[in-house]
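User: quick one
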Amino acid sequence: GELPSKLGTTGAVAVKLAGIQNQTGSPSRMTRVLTGIKTSGTPHLGNYVGAVRPAIAASHAPDVESFYFLADLHSLVNVQDASRVQRSTLEIAATWLAAGLQPDKVWFYRQSDIPEISELNWFLTCVAGKGVLNRAHAYKASVDRNRADGEDDDSGISAGLFMYPVLMSADILLFNANKVPVGRDQVQHIEMARDFAQRFNHLFGGEYFVLPEAAIEDNVATLPGLDGRKMSKSYDNTIPLFAPRAEMKKLIASIVTDSRAPGEAKQVEGSHVFQLYQAFASADETAQMQLAFAEGIGWGDAKQKLFERIDAEVAPMREHYEALMAKPAEIEAILRDGAQRLRAKYATPFLAELRHAVGLRDLSYKPAMESAAGSKAALPLFKQYRDTDNRFYFKLMDGEGRLLVQSNGFDSPKDAGQLIAVLKRGERADAIETPEINVLVPVDDVLAALAQLREAEA
Ligand code: TRP
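Assistant: Done. Structure below.
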């Protein structure tokens, strides 16, 4: 008799299977969209319009699983001031939450809370071509500056700056993200992530990593800053998103304009005041402002209207922001909770698979190649059967006949077969966490057996 000791209830098998399949990389898997936010500096209106607002809108799309994380490890490349790192992480987390990010609907976490990212960073470091990294734009720009200044090529350049694209690849590949929304300046980094993923897959003989794609954000507005150049911390021309009202008003009043007097018609093209207004206003409001420009609104009045329009959108968020900033422990708890759930669901099991793939594995494990060369008997085996309770079961045994996995009872052989298929495809390590099966050996051994089967059937 093959009667398992634990008989499961399987009324909901079909439903559960559907759930598993959605997480396994089968065609029905949701698209994973991943965004990293560097924790340097205080968020300004340009960040809000160019990144925060569109990203939060995108997170409501159906069939998308969104990942938003604070790239605090990356911030260490340019910020070596502990309290600035801490303050910026707090401000940026509070900004995203105040702007409406829902941490129960999307993955929201802090990079440094996921140690698997750092471990994968090393695996990828060891497959990344140094020559590829030499060609990174940001690194090359630093070298060029050094040459122009007559310094050594690598003067003042840390290895962290050089390795930046590898860490970014680890962020993306650990979660097998399909799409990474980025500005043009980051596209090269996504190409590198694809390159490292491909190399890893090739070297270790499996489809471990999905190749990510850059989703280039060309149609989001870039805002002009106070001086008319692109609003950017490095130009010192920003309007902080949550500046107190009085300060916001003063900053808006200081935006450069031409010298036309009230009553004189004004051009909307090239007007920074108008561009900023447009980024916050509805189509109707924008058309009205255009009319007001033609009719010669004074710059003082136009700026007052701009201030009021921005404040209408920002004021409710500012209140939320200030409440959050007053309770950093709550933000800390939200971030930790996100990381903990994400590790359990994806990062930890996937990294176990990757450790095995590169050879950091149980010393008693026998790789397929070295055991009874190619003979069928050495392969792991799924065995399906019907038991005396008239229910359908399967088990997975390794080449030596050791029982690795014992399923619970299913109502139909089809249900059992579907779960076997999911396990075999193995795009997601977490499929083996389903309560429908009992894993009787270390998870690594099961993953290894599944990988061995896949290899043999490929
Ligand atoms: N390099 C990105 C930036 O400067 C931030 C970042 C870090 C990121 N890791 C990422 C973006 C992963 C997308 C995906 O803006």
